[in-house]
Amino acid sequence: MEPIIINLKQHTPMLHFQPELAAEGATLRATELKPKLDRYIIANYGNPIPKEWLVDPKNNKTALNYKLSVTATKCSEVKTDVVRKGKPVYPMFFGDGKTALSSSDPIELKIFCLIKSLREHIEKNIDWSLFFLANNFGTRQDKGYGSFYPDKMSVGPSVVGKTVKTENGVEYRVDTFFTVQDQQMQNWQAVFKRTEYAAKCMRGGINEGSFYFKSLMFAYAKYAITEHKKEKLFWDKRMIKEKFYPKVVEEHRKKYPNNDALKVMNEKELNQQPYMFRDFLGLSTAESWKIPYDKTLSKESNNISRMKSPLLFKPVWVAGKWYVFLLHREVPQGFKFSGNDKRPNSFIVTDKSRDHRITMVPYPDFYMSEYLNYIFGKDIKYSNLISIKNNDDFKAKKAKDTALKVLEGLKENYKPINTTNL
To answer: Which CATH architecture fits 4-153?
Structure first.
């Protein structure tokens, strides 16, 4: 029986742990692709999967009974503009032992299946464009590395608002996109720099030289919740500063006396339950705080060891332009609560060098949909969250312009989410 053949185009480099195999086509691996495809097929079937489709029907394993191979040619290492100690430095990746590889030619998927009904389902019912729209591969895939898309298939603004079930219980929604002009598909580093700005603005903010962008999560916690839900809350970083480093906070107050974010907290506010907000966009168990703190903070929980970001950036190059789509899934309830009685999960934040510790819990009424509606809503003004310490700093002004362009693009193309059922 002839195999089912799907041709893919690789749009962004894939961070690979075996760069020496580049000449042999080391790129997308069947061992990573097939489990994702299995889960996608099962989630979108609509009924229990026929037992004959399973590799091991007795144990009801979720592996489906077909074989998949990946063939790539002309795979090579992707060069970067930044090299440190003789090694390439990739945007949004700070680890070691990985090399960015990419295939310039189409990548061929072959699916071999001897079960007639399963083969027919794969041939007729799999929406390959949606599957690859909601899936990247390899390391840092949530930030856009390892983006593949069916060759000869186009994608554009019409996908905004669509939802994709990637596995049972997990559904991604395509929320918005920004674009980058690039006639030759060579400007991938600029695409990742803009993606990095978007991700940082949404989570922890940017502190880059003279350029400072106060986090959109800070704005959500302080303004959206306080004003619309009548709860005066302070985001996690502010509470940690007040508890761990009050002298530094006082110095900032003297230096910036008109900064509303540094107003003195009363005793009730200082003693309220500290909530976590930033970690809804990906749990960070260790954080390095720069000057003037120069500290490393750790975060631990008995119930939760990791939670990947519910955001997914999907870069796709189409006819001289990059579309970088932003998708999201809701945060699992298991991150916020423990057990059937919905006890809040507790996290211990520590600065071991000063023997500081504080117990924090995820804000129980946080929903990604409400957060996205706020940060891309018509009322928000991104310029209010920006400051430049040195007005003669050209790099800071360029960074500001880039960040604003990305955010305004995401805002312009955003399709609001109906949150009435939350």
So the answer is: 2-Layer Sandwich (3.30)
